[in-house]
Structure formats: structure tokens, C-alpha cells
């Protein structure tokens, strides 16, 4: 077993595989090790569709071995500690591995302990999450007979910030088709202040919410789930000028107490669990106060250790954590790494915070939010070739993109190191 690599990549998810594959495409002689414990790699974006019963879970999984690029050494192990001052990563069973350059992309972890009662409740009975078991979500939707269908998300950053509301729209559409929407209160409660940060997308989504008769509740920060009595508790964080009074005896059964604690009874609950960087990352010197890896926002080079790069969900980049963002981050990391190897300065500072969120708003309908650090709407000009001229509006062609084209591009282009 080798104890040193020129480039050590941590994580065989979207960011790790794509980076290793692009590096090998540029130079087959590179000496790359990739530390990844899992046997299976998942295409997580399709879990939203799995949860709505319109995509096969098995199709979201592929053996990790089939994705590790040829010529890259798979170190099938967990990274357990990062020691950048010594250029070393410790692992669970392969000991210490040293490197010349490090690429960190181990994603993030769900931490259900941050919401009281969630660890016991999640993925059981009427409590579900596309983040942990999308097949259970689909069972819960099918079993729902009317009443309160509650959708929420935590106060921590999460991957694909739009996913908690996508499943709410799909559920509302499913209840409509089943004829039970009129007997249901579909509630989307979020700690966020708006439905979406990009103005054009926000306008469309507010119309979608109206169409389904959904109840949108901003400034709701969930902190406790009582699964036995089927009640979710939120801290109401709205500033004085944004507060909306809660009427006694309202049809949702929502209450508020003198400490601004809101309770909502539910007949089903979907939520994104709280999410953090993995422990070995949080415990390292590479993170900011919130525990995310601190890299330059434009070059993705670590702010203190020049031979360390990081991308994907684990970073502290102030943009949405998505695979789409990684698609734009990888070529920059690859460029800059190759410059460093040639003893040149890091030249590529072009990452502008691009991220994208395919917001499915019903079966056969989607809006594509593409944006940058400043929340400017930045639609891909290539969409015109698909006859999509305004991706901020619902379109069936965008649904085709989500359900068929993006998975194809992921497995056949992104994972193979081809630029898309
Ligand atoms: C429900 C849902 C819907 C989503 N929808 C979309 C969408 O529509 N569009 C979109 O672009 N993105 C979407 N995403 C987000 C997207 O999947 C992630 O942003 C992306 O996969 C992040 O890539 P990553 O490489 O940072 O992490 P991941 O792909 O999660 O990979 C991390 C890898 O690191 C490995 N790892 C973890 N710990 C260690 C360790 N100690 N040592 C070594 N390896 C380790 C893991 O096993 C894993 O293989 C969605 C995600 C979810 C859950």
C-alpha cells in the first residue's frame, strides 16, 4: 500500500470523482490516490423524483469501482484527520498518507441530533426525508389521506437548498391528482426569509404556491419534533415589521406561545435534516468558525495552505451547495492544481459562485434557477437550443432535462471528466 501520493483526493462523490477524472484526462502520468470508504456512488439529485414516485431509486446508484478513473488508486478507507502542516491525512485502517497536493471533497453529513426528537423520528411512520430515504417519502405520500402535510428545513446550510420545497410542490400535485388536495393543508415552513433568493424565480414560485393553495411560512426555525403526538415546534424569528399574527382556531391548528414558539400538528412531515461538515473536517485547522472549509471564493485554493484545494458541499463558499456548482468548480481546481505542479502561480480566479437549482414545481413542470454569488439570474445560453427561452418560468422541457438529460450528462460526461 502506497504511503505517498502527488495528489490525494478525499471523497469519491461528485466533486472527488469529477476532479480525479479531469486531472487524469489532462495528464495520465499524475500520481493520484482517492480516499473513499463507500461501495456505492449515488446520483442524489434524482432522489427528489424518487420521493415523488417518478424515478427508480436503483437507477440513482452505481458501484464506486465503476467510477474511479483508470490510473487512480482507490484507497478504500475513511479519512480520520487532516494534518496540513505536515501534508498528511490520517485514515482509519491505512495509516497516514502524505501528499504534495490535497483536494478535499468529502461532502457533508446529516446531523439529526440538532433537532430534538428527530433522530428517533426520521424515516419512521409519517416522518420522511428525501435526504435520507426517498423511498420512504414516496410511501408516506401514498399513505397520506388528507390533513396537514408539513414540509420544512433546518437553520443550518443544506445541500440543494431547493430540495425541501421541490418535494412540497410534487406532493401538492400528487394530492391534486388523487383528489385529496382540497382536504389537505400543504405547509412549507422555512427559517428562510423568502421562498427563493433570485427575484425572477421567486415570482414564479409564489404563483406555484398560490396555484396549489399552499401555506408558506417564512421565519420558522424547527427545533423539536414530537413524533408520538405528531407536532413540530418552531422558533418564530420574524422581525417586528414582518410578523404575521397567528389566529386562534385557524384551520391548520397552528399555535404560538409567549416565547414565540410555534407548534404545527402534522399528518405527514417531510424535512431536510440539519447538516454539517464531517467531524474529521470540523476538527481540523482548515475550517472557519462555522466548521466549513475556508477556500478563496474564486480560485478554490485554501486561504492558509496553498497546496490544499476544496470544492463541493464541504466548503464555506457563500453559494448553494449543489452538483451543478461543482460542475463549474472542478475545471478551476484542476487548472490551478496543474499550474502549481508546474511551479506557476494559481491563475484561475474565475469561479463566480455559479450554482443552479432545478425546481420541479409539479409532475412535468420545472423552473431552472441558475445564479451567482450575487443572486443574479444567469441562465445558460445553451437552453435556447432546447427551445427554452425563459427558464424562470415553468416548462415541460425543463422537466425532461431534469428527469432524463441531467442524469445522462452526470454519468456519461461529468463522471468521465468531460467538460459539460
Ligand atoms: C435530495 C437531494 C436533492 C438534490 N438535488 C440536487 C439537484 O437537483 N441539483 C444539484 O446540482 N444538486 C443536487 N443535490 C446536491 C448534490 O447531490 C451535492 O451537492 C453533491 O453531490 C455534492 O458533492 P460532494 O462531492 O461535495 O459530496 P458527495 O457527492 O456527497 O460525496 C462525498 C463523498 O465523500 C465520501 N466521504 C465522506 N466521509 C469521508 C471520509 N471520512 N473519508 C473519505 N471519504 C469520505 C462519501 O462517502 C461520499 O462518497 C441534491 C442532494 C440531495 C440530497
UniProtKB/TrEMBL annotation:
Entry's transmembrane regions: none
Species this protein is from: Muriicola marianensis
Record's protein name: Pyridine nucleotide-disulfide oxidoreductase
SUPFAM superfamilies: FAD/NAD(P)-binding domain
Residue ranges constituting the FAD/NAD(P)-binding domain according to the UniProt record: 5-316
Domain of life: Bacteria
